[in-house]
Design brief:
The structure is a homodimer of 364-residue chains.
Chain A lengths: L26 H8 L3 H8 L7 H13 L6 H8 L4 E6 L5 H16 L3 E6 L4 H13 L4 E5 L4 H10 L4 E4 L9 E5 L1 H14 L5 E5 L5 H16 L9 E3 L4 H13 L6 E4 L2 H13 L9 E3 L16 E3 L2 H16 L7 E4 L2 E3 L18
Parallel strand pairs in A: 1-2, 1-3, 3-4, 4-5, 5-11, 6-7, 6-8, 8-9
Antiparallel strand pairs in A: 10-12
Helix pairs in contact in A: 1-2, 1-3, 2-3, 5-12, 6-7, 8-9, 10-11
The first copy, chain A, binds a DNA duplex (16 and 16 nucleotides) through helix 2 and helix 4.
Chain lengths: 364, 364
Amino acid sequence: MVDKGTGKVDEGARSGVSERTLRQPSIKDIARLARVSHPTVSRALQNSPLVNAKTAERIRRIASESGYRASAVARGLVTKRTRTIGLVVTTVADPFASEVVCGIEQTASDHGYSVFLADSNADPERERKVVQAFAERRVDGIIVTSSRVGALYLPLLSEMMVPIVLVNDQYPGAFVHSVMIGNLEGSRAAAKHLVELGHTRIAYLGDQFGYQSDVERFAGYREALDRAGIPFLSEFAVHGDGKPEAAMSAMDKLLALANPPTAVCCYNDMSALGAMQSIRLHGLRVPEEISVVGFDDLFFASYTQPPLTTVRQPMRRMGQLAMENLFKLMSGEESVVKVKVEAELIVRESTARVRPNGVRKGNR
Amino acid sequence: MVDKGTGKVDEGARSGVSERTLRQPSIKDIARLARVSHPTVSRALQNSPLVNAKTAERIRRIASESGYRASAVARGLVTKRTRTIGLVVTTVADPFASEVVCGIEQTASDHGYSVFLADSNADPERERKVVQAFAERRVDGIIVTSSRVGALYLPLLSEMMVPIVLVNDQYPGAFVHSVMIGNLEGSRAAAKHLVELGHTRIAYLGDQFGYQSDVERFAGYREALDRAGIPFLSEFAVHGDGKPEAAMSAMDKLLALANPPTAVCCYNDMSALGAMQSIRLHGLRVPEEISVVGFDDLFFASYTQPPLTTVRQPMRRMGQLAMENLFKLMSGEESVVKVKVEAELIVRESTARVRPNGVRKGNR
DNA sequence: TTGTAGGCGTTATCAT
DNA sequence: ATGATAACGCCTACAA
């Protein structure tokens, strides 16, 4: 009952409240304008070879002129594929996550997929809601990044029968597909680097206890020590929560030791940020008095003072890989299971040869 | 091997959990199980008072047991509202953007909306594709953050007849709704702070020329100088691109001056990061020899060495505001137009009283 | 209080 | 090469 002749919608220059709902042209509108049936329009727009080249061209022209945009929602209803994925992340306001998200989004977009983004905030209740929302929206697949609440909702996810890919998850159930960083190797390389600089009093400033990546990075640290024949001192293992503030407190503890370490392996760059702050507040200098190494190689790592030696994760690439694997799974492949990507030690200026006299307790 | 024909094949999993049906249950399946008509199921699930409490309860139980999730895509088709918004951002891998995104997502989610996230990478072609995708997905509204390619696609957006809210956009067309920070006031406060510390040789390290926020922040800087009767030196205005690397080069230029500044107002914290790096590479110290102030108050600002004096933008709040305003617009209100939020100067340790002798050119 | 009959905008399956 | 017609899963009249 709306338009008949033009099919061209009002520009809305004068946006009357009621006029706003002028509906977008439908495939039938285009069909009428082109004097063909709507299936023909559908075919023409999909470049089907079945339709006469001339009319196809005409149809496309008319569609374009009237600003026609095929409704993905209607299409999704009939094809049962929405070309949509759900992406759940603890919080986008985390440099690691946002890089991964970036890689995922690019790849998805390149393939004509759109991505629903949802923060879980590590809140189980929110996580439930998110998954429910994704289910209702009929996403074709799901990617979960750095989740800390795995066990709880993984069953829920599997219930909805869409493929799932995890990125650096803390609770990688044995049954899911994932993209993980080589935590152990990376961390071992970092600790080995410190050993090679002559350090023997090397501490580990970790994430919360029990998370898979923390466990693995700790294991890498231990391995490097073991191989060098350096005994592990339990008071040299402290825990933060992956963020600067908690890392500060943890580093404070380390520095309060009667005989503090001359080097610290941090769980990640965010922790390293806090550690360096603590060190500075104690009147000590990096790397002269204490060497610090991080993990991730976030954008700011080259700009800390001094620039941070760290273990690089190819975050965007990991996002891309996750998306590509999800594509495979969505197209029915059952093969992909776990992809492990390599971590790379990036030596900058926060690590230096140990000084003969070790750390003197600072004055400030 | 299943369905296609009558659809009576999948009835098997009546005992609740157990086997996963190939097809997700539809409203009709639930209706059959509950021995009612599907509209009744629909009503029951929406807690309509029209349906008998007992049967409603039974229906809900059955729906829940069989893992029924109403299809948002089917619902969207009939209601013409998808409860979905499109969010376009230059790149999520930018701390400012991700904070804003976070605020938006939270608010959207709290109201039952899902958000499509898309990166434009400041690439006009991608931007076109993104908008096209949003149009096809029939999003109810759009938010654009920090876009640098306004003019180009804004018309495109308006063509699709959904409300749009801009956050800190560089080309705020006169006709759109937006949430903006008080650039001028914030920047003026920063420069004033430096003036009060006795500085008279204050430089401005900006973003690319021509962007609205850069223009405004520069204006604030100029105002502070004017009010203090400090003459503006054109060689003290240099441009980066809002990222650390370009800021380094810009700062290099400043330091190469015969008579360099004793303080710098940076366009944002990312630029400040680069500026501080450059200063350090020149063998100078912050704040003893040069004071530095940023803009944004990103998470790392408290952890730079020294901690960065900066102008805080309430990024999440801005995201939240944008979303709330979009809600109003989507519900038909025409009132909201431009919201300006206040910037707040956060004094930390990268700024100090000017030294009588000024900057000595560093040796390294 | 509940059921019946459309219809939303597509694609798919037949015909012709 | 094109056109009827039937889904897809839901909601909203309107009827009972």
